[in-house]
Amino acid sequence: MKGSTLGVGRLRAASAGNGVLGVLVLLLIGLTLGMGQLEPLFRALFPDLGTPLYSRDSFLNLMLAHIGLVLVSSLISVTIGIAAGLFVTRPVGREFEPMVSSLAAIGQTFPPAAVLAIAVPLAGFGFAPTIIALSLYGLLPVIQNTIAGLGTVPQTTLEAARGNGMSRWQILRRVELPLAMRVIIAGIRVSVIINIGTATIGSTVGAKSLGTPLIAGLVGNNLAYVIQGALLVGLLAIVTDLLFERLERRYSFGG
Amino acid sequence: MASTRSRQWVGNRVLMTLLVAAVASVGLLPFASLSPNRLASGQSVMLWEASASWQLAAFALIGLALLLAALARPLSVRTALWLSLIATLPLLALDFQALGGYAHRALVDASPAARVSQGATFWILLFVCVLIAIDALQRLRLGMAGRALYGMAALAVIAACFCGDLLAPLSIMREFANQRDNFVDQLIRHLLLVGGALVPALLVGLPLGLMANRRARLRNGLFSVLNVFQTLPSIAVFGLLIAPLSALGRAVPWLGDLGVSGIGVAPAIIALVLYSLLPIVRNTYSGLAGVSSGALEAARGMGMTPRQILWQVEIPLALPVILSGLRIVTVQAIGLVVVAALIGAGGFGAFIFQGLGQYAIDLVLLGAIPTIVLAVIADFALQILVSLSRPAGTR
Q: Which residues form the ABC transmembrane type-1 domain (chain B) (predicted)?
């Protein structure tokens, strides 16, 4: 009985979640394309400002640049992170596992903004340091969760797979990875959400992103710019997080 | 086959890999750079050009000791690990010695504007020392006390390098000398902002966590609201708080007199509290939820009142988990305060963004490195606190 009411509740929550997600996605697209239409509103809210709408670049361009930064760096982090996680959980690389784990744990105590700042002397200003900092930082939660996820696969399951005559590669692809996928995706989610935030600060080292109007507004004392940038980047983060939540749910076997 | 044969020779492949990486870096990447002034880019100097001959000999000796520790024979596993652990301390000192010594010699007959900065190999050697130590400490299974002791020895070595004027001619230390008073101010400001956010976050978060534990209905809603704040980029939250707070500061004059305004400390503290709530509430909740029903029943059976059970059974048993939440939040807050410098709250972030604006890399590092050190030290200290809070026998 309890199970079934819980199931209904979860179903209801999921469909309510769909509604919220739908509204937020529409809001995100609408604001990205139609921020210009809101100019009268910003003019009314901030009568003292000469230009109440950021116009040095279109919000669509800024949004695409931001998503591009996060996408490129996340692809790098996910590829290297999962590969490293796999390496240290195979017999060849098991010796490296304790060190890689503690490195990932210590690295995550480094503030993302400080890592971004340190990338500048290495790579100059612009796109490159931001990509380096985002990929390096995003790597850590992916490695950590890949190791943790593969570690949750029960030994008996692995033995059963071996007993069925599956090869190592088959076990990895058809048993270990599917069972670890939910935890790995949770790591990717953390990494992407942190990177959306850090890409915003990337505009201080010269990378174009939704942080560009935000920082320009903070520096030039233009609150309207700040709100325009902050709204869009906040929405982007929430929508991305909700999408990952759904993805994670898809991989949770039997709750 | 080749790999099994090499495994017979190499006893510690992690140490061997680190050693190869260090040697490759020494051979390929600059150890220091010499530039005509603060803003110009410098000319690369390799380790063997920068070191005095006794330093080169010492580098080689430590390298051989580490190689010996990485081989399967003749040393026993434990002896090899102790050797690698001990050898990292002089390597650490030598890394700083070589850099400082080079800076002294290079600047003797250079113009006063000339600067010496650390290069990639300096950082890589430092990093390799840290990794060798981490690996050896883990393999030796030293407890918290052993790790803390070794950590303090390493810190003492580094502190000794900073005492005296060994590193004074380095570019970043000259920047530090210029900013000395300012540096102390920003350090205090950084710590005050972190403390100023953590105290209210604990005052609100601990009762909320208790409530989440007692009332299941409240839990989901509370967690999803708090999760939204964790998701939002910090700079967006800082930005969105500016307008309402400056309106509030203007509308309620006494609040304005207290310093509530759109920029500065008020929005920084509010945003930090909002970010800190989720980990505190979540860990308080799960710490309390993890208390075994057996312990609770035993307490009830002994005739303890609910209040006594909370204070004498539940909270002590949940303490390690609650403190882990505090650890997450403290490290997170130290990092978020960096970003708060963009809304004029001060702290080490002020150096970072000022440096980025002027393309003064030393100023950037003067903000970034202390922030990282602060975060790592806070993490380690709270980790010790967490392990001390575990009931005896489960540590």
A: 187-382
CB A196 within 8 A of CB A242: no
Q: Which residue from A136, A129, A137 is spatially nearest to A206, judged by alpha carbons?
A: A129
Gap from B262 CA to chain A (nearest CA, Å): 10
Mean pLDDT of A153-178: 92
ipTM: 0.85
Write the residue in A109, A201, A241 that is nearest to B379 by C-beta: A109
Domains annotated on chain A, with CATH: 59-250 (1.10.3720.10)
Bridge partners (DSSP) of residue B170 are: B116
Which of B235, B342, B358 would you mutate first to test chain A, the one with the most A CBs within 10 A? B235
Place B394 in a pLDDT band, splitting at 50, 70 and 90: low
Q: In terms of CA atoms, which chain A residue is nearest residue B356?
A: A205
Do B119 and B31 contact (CB within 8 A), yes or no?
yes
* Run of H or E residues at B34: strand B32-35
Residue B92 in tokens: 């650490």
Q: Is the pLDDT of residue B17 over 80?
A: yes
A21 touches chain B (CB under 8 A): no
Residue type, A70: V
Whether B343 sits inside 8 A of A103 (CB atoms) is no
Cβ burial of B113 (10 Å; 0-12, 13-18, 19+) is exposed
Across the range B44-70, mean pLDDT stands at 94
Separation CA A140–CA A195 (nearest Å):
12
Q: Any idea of the CA torsion for B190, B191, B194, B198, to the nearest 10 degrees?
A: -170
A132 in B contact zone (CB under 8 Å): no
Instruction: Look at residue B31 and give its three-state secondary structure.
Output: coil
pTM of the model: 0.88
Q: Which domains are delineated in chain B? A: 2-177 (no CATH), 180-389 (1.10.3720.10)
Please compute the mean of the pLDDT values over residues A161-179 and round it to a whole number. Answer: 92
CB atoms within 10 A of CB A33: 13
| Contact yes or no for B142/B150 (Cβ under 8 A) | yes
The one-letter amino acid code at B294 reads G
Of residues A165, A162, A168, A199, the one with CA closest to residue A64: A199
